[in-house]
Design goal:
Blueprint: H1 8-34, H2 40-59, H3 64-67, H4 70-98, H5 107-110, H6 113-147
Helix pairs in contact: 1-2, 1-6, 2-4, 2-6, 4-6
Length: 151
Amino acid sequence: MGAQPLTENEIQMKEQEAREMVNKKALYSSIAAVLPIPLLDIGTDMKLMKDIRQEAEKIFELDHSQVNELSDDLMNRALVMATSMGSEFIGRNASKVLFKGAAKNSKVAKFGIAPLATNALGAGVSYMLMKKLGHDYVDRCAEAARNQTVS
């Protein structure tokens, strides 16, 4: 790919495009985190991160080998799985703390707001973590593109 080196201005434009793509994918991750289907969150996050990598490399006109090594791929997969499980754990446990003071007969308990808050918190964590992982990968792609740039 990448027949000609990119200028700094082109790299910045591609970086912005890639970040917008990552934000959309992170939103999909948060939606999957809300759905109460076992392992959907992890599977979705793995697929989304693969898509982020492929699309970012395409945007920057780079080969995968120009950005990563095999050990990075394995580490990336482990991070995606950890973020998926972590968002679920944080959402579940943080909501227990937040609603611990709610009485059994309170309006909070009657309307089932605690489970909704748990899901929303988990979705927020999933969004932020996927966004962070995606933006980190975009940074690596931009750095690889800059290493090929002639001033």
